[in-house]
């Protein structure tokens, strides 16, 4: 039997990593956070990669890591980074090899509030405030998330409903 995949896309703080781990516990599949895998492959954290090599190199590493994960023989739930859709090549790869793709959607205000509560270690991409950056980047990326997605799920609802809806997708693979 071929390896099965569920690939999660969406903006930062949309719940991709949390959902991947919750679904892995329920399904026995392996959860992979693409950013964690990238850091392991690169041997440096994301802020260091951005500071020393720039966003372009980070995006190169991100694409390489996605390709490696898609080549795995394991059943995987892949939580991608929010910017994976920035590159057209990645969008093609997601559409051709990462099916099904689930877009975890949330309004910019909800994402901003989550990010302000938990800044994490991700660098600002625009130098703007969190609220301004989220609004601008989400407006830019949302059409791409929808372009690659087979399913869309709002994470602006009770978390057990999110997990239940995503699990139904996995169970129908």
Describe this protein's structure.
The chain is an alpha/beta fold. The protein has a single domain (5-171), classed as P-loop containing nucleotide triphosphate hydrolases (Rossmann fold), CATH 3.40.50.300. The protein is 57% helix and 13% strand. The chain contains 7 helices and 5 strands. The chain has helices at residues 16-27, 34-42, 46-70, 88-97, 108-117, 130-148, 159-171; strands at residues 5-9, 30-33, 76-79, 101-105, 151-154. It has a 5-stranded parallel beta sheet with strand order 2-3-1-4-5, with helices on both faces. The longest helix has 25 residues, at 46-70. The chain starts with a strand and ends with a helix.
Give the helices and strands, then pairings.
Layout: E1 5-9, H1 16-27, E2 30-33, H2 34-42, H3 46-70, E3 76-79, H4 88-97, E4 101-105, H5 108-117, H6 130-148, E5 151-154, H7 159-171
Parallel strand pairs: 1-3, 1-4, 2-3, 4-5
Helix pairs in contact: 1-7, 2-3, 3-4, 5-6
Strand order of the largest sheet: 2-3-1-4-5
CATH architecture, by name, is 3-Layer(aba) Sandwich
Strand content: 5-15%
> CATH class, anyone?
Alpha Beta
Determine the structural class based on helices, strands and strand pairing: alpha/beta
Give, in order, the helices and strands: EHEHHEHEHHEH
Q: Report mean pLDDT, rounded to a whole number.
A: 91
Rg on CA atoms, Å: 15 Å
């Amino acid at each position: 039997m071929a390896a099965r995949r569920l690939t999660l896309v969406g903006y930062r703080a949309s719940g991709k990593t949390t959902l991947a781990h919750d679904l892995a516990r329920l399904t026995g599949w392996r959860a992979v956070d693409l950013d964690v895998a990238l850091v392991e492959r690169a041997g440096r954290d994301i802020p260091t990669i951005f500071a020393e090599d720039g966003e372009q190199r980070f995006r190169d590493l991100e694409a390489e890591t996605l390709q490696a994960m898609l080549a795995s023989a394991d059943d995987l739930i892949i939580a991608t980074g929010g910017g994976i859709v920035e590159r057209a090549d990645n969008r093609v790869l997601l559409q051709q090899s990462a099916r099904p793709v689930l877009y975890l959607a949330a309004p910019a205000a909800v994402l901003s509030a989550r990010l302000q509560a938990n800044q994490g270690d991700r660098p600002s991409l625009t130098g703007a405030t969190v609220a301004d950056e989220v609004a601008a980047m989400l407006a830019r990326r949302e059409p791409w998330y929808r372009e690659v997605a087979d399913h869309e799920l709002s994470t602006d609802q009770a978390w057990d409903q999110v997990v239940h809806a995503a699990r139904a997708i996995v169970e129908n693979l």
